[in-house]
Amino acid sequence: MKRQAYVRRILIEPDPLLHKVAKKVGDLELRMPLTQQLIDDMLATMYAAPGIGLAAPQVGVAKRIVVVHVGDDPQAHAIVNPVLSDFEGEVVAPEGCLSIPGKVGDVTRAERCRVSGLERNGKKTSFLAEGMLARCFQHEVDHLDGILILDKAQNIRDAVPVETPEKEREEEGNTSVARIEA
Ligand code: NI
């Protein structure tokens, strides 16, 4: 039987839980229905927001779990105990955060990195990410370490709403802002 997924409340800064270092998930713990339910709920919460990524601390659970679904990818990634390595390149781009609504800032991230960790079924995984996928994983793993974009972004400013006509957004210098909430 398929579990029902629930949209959970996203913690908003300032909230002390957003600044805690999250704990690794054990093998047994990962198999528990409670943890599998959490992953289902994180996906539902990310899509409902809508966002392209979410970390467990954002729904008040200090565990090292992230979900990411970027652009044209056929499926979301749900990665447990993610570790990033092999960083390459450097890109500065505007980034938003579901826990800091209405704000964006320019964040420097590696253009590519390797993502290693466990899939939700406990299988080891390791793959190269680049572009928005790499950026989003870096954003989410920061959440697991209690780091928000407020800690590293330059030029934090009000996000221009998506409904704003393209021309006005260009005048504000914020054309690419809208879909980078994570
Ligand atoms: Ni975020």
Top keywords for this entry?
182 residues; Peptide Deformylase; globular; alpha+beta; binds nickel (II) ion; 3-stranded antiparallel sheet; 5-stranded antiparallel sheet
Tally of strands = 8
Estimated radius of gyration: 16 Å
Order of secondary-structure elements: HHEEEEEEEHEH
Helix content: 10-25%
Q: What's the structural domain tally?
A: 1
- Detail the poorly predicted runs: 173-178
Taking the sheet with the most strands, its summary is:
5 strands, antiparallel
CATH topology: Peptide Deformylase
CATH C-level label:
Alpha Beta
Shape: globular
Roughly how many Å apart are the termini?
Answer: 30 Å
Class per helix and strand makeup: alpha+beta
Ligands bound to this protein structure: nickel (II) ion
Mean model confidence by pLDDT: 92
What does this structure look like?
With 182 residues, the chain is α+β, with helices and mostly antiparallel strands. It is 23% helix and 30% strand. The protein has helices at residues 27-31, 33-48, 132-144, 166-172, and strands at residues 53-55, 65-68, 77-88, 91-97, 100-109, 112-118, 124-130, 154-158. The strands form 2 sheets. It has a 5-stranded antiparallel sheet with strand order 1-2-3-6-7, sandwiched between helices. Strands 4-5-8 form a 3-stranded antiparallel sheet. A hairpin with a 2-residue loop joins strand 4 (91-97) and strand 5. The site of nickel (II) ion has 6 residues, from helix 3.
